[in-house]
Amino acid sequence: xxxxxxxxxxxxxxxxxxxxxxxxxxxxxxxxxxxxxxxxxxxxxxxxxxxxxxxxxxxxxxxxxxxxxxxxxxxxxxxxxxxxxxxxxxxxxxxxxxxxxxxxxxxxxxxxxxxxxxxxxxxxxxxxxxxxxxxxxxxxxxxxxxxxxxxxxxxxxxxxxxxxxxxxxxxxxxxxxxxxxxxxxxxxxxxxxxxxxxxxxxxxxxxxxxxxxxxxxxxxxxxxxxxxxxxxxxxxxxxxxxxxxxxxxxxxxxxxxxxxxxxxxxxxxxxxxxxxxxxxxxxxxxxxxxxxxxxxxxxxxxxxxxxxxxxxxxxxxxxxxxxxxxxxxxxxxxxxxxxxxxxxxxxxxxxxxxxxxxxxxxxxxxxxxxxxxxxxxxxxxxxxxxxxxxxxxxxxxxxxxxxxxxxxxxxxxxxxxxxxxxxxxxxxxxxxxxxxxxxxxxxxxxxxxxxxxxxxxxxxxxxxxxxxxxxxxxxxxxxxxxxxxxxxxxxxxxxxxxxxxxxxxxxxxxxxxxxxxxxxxxxxxxxxxxxxxxxxxxxxxxxxxxxxxxxxxxxxxxxxxxxxxxxxxxxxxxxxxxxxxxxxxxxxxxxxxxxxxxxxxxxxxxxxxxxxxxxxxxxxxxxxxxxxxxxxxxxxxxxxxxxxxxxxxxxxxxxxxxxxxxxxxxxxxxxxxxxxxxxxxxxxxxxxxxxxxxxxxxxxxxxxxxxxxxxxxxxxxxxxxxxxxxxxxxxxxxxxxxxxxxxx
Length: 744
Prior knowledge:
The chain has 744 residues and is an alpha+beta fold. It folds into 5 domains: 18-200, no CATH class; 219-312, no CATH class; 317-397, no CATH class; 429-633, P-loop containing nucleotide triphosphate hydrolases (Rossmann fold), CATH 3.40.50; 641-733, Winged helix-like DNA-binding domain superfamily/Winged helix DNA-binding domain (Arc Repressor Mutant, subunit A).
């Protein structure tokens, strides 16, 4: 027996039964139908099937690669003027010895067996290019052409290769009808070879008017007003229900088999009648009036029914569409398009952004529809998403930037919209005391530099000082309170990370609009990959931005970094470091209400006062690149020493080492260096490499060829005096070092 291939379309079927329908044949089709598993009592979305194979998941006629079965959609007339019904058709097909199935469908008016779907098996796949010819020949072969001409079979659906069908719609089990007859499939080759007369083609359905042909009305019907028309509609469809302002659903007034697909639309002081069913798209209000008798027209004119207020509350296009036009913008990001949504607070100020795929946007607003009148005067229903996309008022940008300098660039969307808090005079003295006493340990120089650093952030957000503040200290000292308070003034331009992947991951879109990045225990100084990224972000003017699924693009780097750590080794500091200001914070305050009082003051005008102080602080003559060189920074340089600098620093701190008083064999010195490297996680050097590095850090170093007592000659280092070597090393480090006293 030939299988009826059911191509289940993603998203259009009930996932609970999808496995049962995959690859189902006629027996399964009938078994599932007879089990009434698909009684649509809960109004769930029903599974669908198609009788054509597609090349991929895209459903279209051009994408089809073969027809595997025949489906006839029979919509009988409720008034009984049918030339055919299911019982008669069963006898015709059984006499031909064919395998077929008949499953009833449902509408409000037509009772089975006057509305059903006929499925006929074929013995091979029909090529797409021969589909139309095959359909014409099958109709002639089965003798069904008269029923197509009487508008009982849907010829348009029958010839549509990409048509999909719901698997039943069994709202009323008592009206359910199903039949399956075993037999032979239709021979495709035999049908295609039939020679038929020219007049065999399926003609358009007789009662369908040409598109746009509304027809002229007589004077009586031309004078029917809105309220009189509403009266006529209520008499024909008393079950009318208003689903939303301006739109009502009702029984189709043109083809009752379409059930409640009829629509009544009130827009621009005009009432129009239509149907959501595709076969009724050409019918208009004029066609409805022509089918009303003169008596009905006169009675409606004499006794009009006022339109309900719910229908009159017409949703103008500007009410909902203007909201979307104000909220969304279409942007080009790299080589792809994306929708940008502006998130605003209660005052209407933009506080954040959200990037949305076009497909997601279409799905979000697919269920929001509005009636519009096109250029021909015809009323159509369009989704709010399509109206937004087609609107001339839609904002379109060909580039997205983050430029806090507030310079306007044509056709470019700037992600910076100012700070979320407005400055205002007030009191924030407790927070300033936190900075001075806890963060800066009472050092006025450090305190002033810190305030200048953040004053520059708010006064010149588009400028980078190339400096990062690093706070090193025990837990509870106030490092997080300090950073998050500054972040409160920045809103979504402040980013707090505590995981390495958020800093080093490939996808870094969360940093796109960051002015201040708080790195909280997220990095290990020995990580070379992190070191390169950290140093580049502190000083470089641009960086690469990559969103998931989007092209990587180069953007301007406006991010300043502050760090907090409890570790002894906090940062990878070079000998001549120019990027970091390291501050050793005070211990945790003993007062349990210390931070509570600070937050209380901040919540009562302190944030606004702090921003006011920073914006008014005079920094015109301040160069942030000149920062205090703290002992904490020196400690980080020492912790970051490589093998040779670490070994040389240990020698400089040992005034009694033999190298300070006599020549030392190069072999012996190298062996001592190797032993030192074993005690630290670092790469060793060869004797030649060690000699070259020593020339740079030991001024006046000489090599001399000496002799042992045995007469053997050897090469030796002759080092300059200890004081000279220490002074030179302090010059390399750029800071004074507290050495051990040589006289002790």
